[in-house]
Amino acid sequence: MDTRVKAWTVDDARLVLAEHGQEHVLRFWESLNAAERNSLLTDVKGIDFRLVDRLIRDWVSSEPPQERFNRIEPIPLIPKAVEDRPDAVAARDAGEEALRQGWVGLFLVAGGQGTRLGFDGPKGAYPIGPFSKKSFFAFHAEKIRNLQRRYSCELPWYIMVSDANEAATLAFFQANAHFGLNPANIVFLKQRMMPCIDNEGRFMLEERGRLAMNPNGHGGCLPAMVEEGVVADARQRGIRMLSYFQVDNWTVKVADPYFIGYHLLRNADMSSKNHWKDDVREAVGVHCRCDGEYRVVEYSELDIYPQLLKLDAHGHMIHGAGNPAIHILSVDFVEWVFNHFDSFPWHRAHKRIPYIDERGERVNPSNPNAYKFETFVFDALRFIRHEPVALEIDRAGEYTPIKEFEGDNSVVTAWRRMSDYWAEWLEAAGGHVPRDDQGRPAIRIEISPEFALTKQEFLSKTVGRTYPTDGNLHIDADGNAVPTA
Ligand code: UTP
Predict the structure, then answer these.
(1) What is the pTM (predicted TM-score) of this model?
(2) Which terminus of the chain has fewer Cβ atoms in its 10 Å neighbourhood, N or C?
(3) How remote is the CA of residue 285 from the centroid of ligand 1, in Å?
(4) pLDDT tens, 83-112?
């Protein structure tokens, strides 16, 4: 970064901006108040001009050549961890021991803008519980409380936020008394922002005194972990690995002992869970090996690599390993990636970005007018030094992302999927769940993860207990059925 930043005045900013052809963002300077001036200077100070110039040159002023692979292979998946397989038992034992020893931390990425959901507030504050109306953050906290009790351990929770939602997220945790967790074990860190770039390669103003910017993608967690002190904090606490998850995956199993165990026993740098896709076109990235390198190919790129759409002679998918963005990252590996971050890949998205025009008027474009640049955490797979772990999971109970109000990744679909999943627990415990003519539960169900994280735990805690299933059912953290109205 420019070394002049500390003593910056507007003249210094003007000089640097002019060097990079971006001085137009100061055009309203004379009419800005002190706060607006300060905000604009802060935005400009934070920019890595060397990086941004490179991205504009390679991605806006020219079209980068499309990557081509000679050979795309499916990744070797570890089959779903089931109790009666010795490798799974060994993994679970190792994972449980790591939890008891305090080697595991949790890493949540919650810095995104949540544009598609359009909720007014940080996405983690969205009231996802069908009856409890508990937020994503509250659900994740309940899982943590369950694990801490079960393994008599403390699980530090690192939460990445961004300028887009930092203040609101911190206020939400305060207002909810940190969901009953020890605040000393909740560490917030902030990712960096990137300027949005218009079709001519120019910065844009979101307000007269503020640049249009976006968080640098979930891959931004890798430098942020080092720059914001997470790696140092984790080392000081004796943490060796981080269980990575995304805020909008409502029912993700955090710090899953099986997953931790495989990661540990195989001495992996980075591990991934994978669910078998419903069909080749499912809107999820594909985990595969491209010319020997581990990759996730985004679903938007499937047509570029038609091999990924092929079926075998029996009509089965060859490349079915969907990437639900559930990982384990070794702390050492995070530092390794940080030291190589100059060669970390960037992704470009062409978007409709509102801006302030030369006359100072706000413009809401109806067509994509600008580029957002982001990094993706799965690209860290290119930097691994040891074979990664790719563990197959059932989608049910592990991957319930909420991206939008309607469709496959919506709230209603997630509620339905989880009612299907929890209905099986109730039936396994001897309960009766009314079903419709398609065999799906005719009632809606919510079970607190603080009470039970797995079917096994539910069964062990509900011996001799029955729940009323003649209507919707909500089981709280103490295992009691509470009114759903
Ligand atoms: P998505 O890519 O789904 O983005 O993020 P989003 O912000 O939630 O929603 P859209 O695309 O704007 O509609 C997946 C996860 O990565 C985090 C999000 O908070 C979410 O947990 N994320 C995304 C970040 O932490 N930072 C980012 O820059 C982008």
Answers:
(1) 0.96
(2) C
(3) 15
(4) 889 999 999 999 999 999 999 999 999 999
A 10 A CB-CB count for 356 gives 20
Dihedral sign from CA coordinates of 249, 252, 254, 255: negative
Q: Which domains does the chain have, with CATH numbers?
A: 10-46 (no CATH), 72-393 (3.90.550.10), 411-482 (no CATH)
- Say if ligand 1 is within 6 A of residue 72 CB: no
How far apart (Å, rounded) are the C-alpha atoms in residues 114 and 412?
17
Helix (H, G, I), strand (E, B) or coil at 460: helix
Give per-residue pLDDT as tens, 119-133. 999 999 999 999 999
Atom 22, ligand 1: which residue's CA is nearest? 112
Q: Which residues contact 461 (CB under 8 A, 6 or more apart)?
A: 451, 452, 479
- pLDDT for residue 2 is more than 50: no
pLDDT tens-digit readout, 179-201: 999 999 999 999 999 999 999 99
How far is the C-alpha of 377 from the C-alpha of 59, rounded, in Å? 20
Specify the amino acid at residue 448. S
> By alpha-carbon position, which residue is closest to atom 18 of ligand 1?
112
- Is the model's pLDDT at 225 over the cut of 50? yes
Tell me the three-class secondary structure of 18-48, residue by residue: HHCCCHHHHCCHHHCCHHHHHHHHHHHHCCC
d(CA 218, CA 238): 25
Residues 254, 213 contacting (CB under 8 angstroms):
no
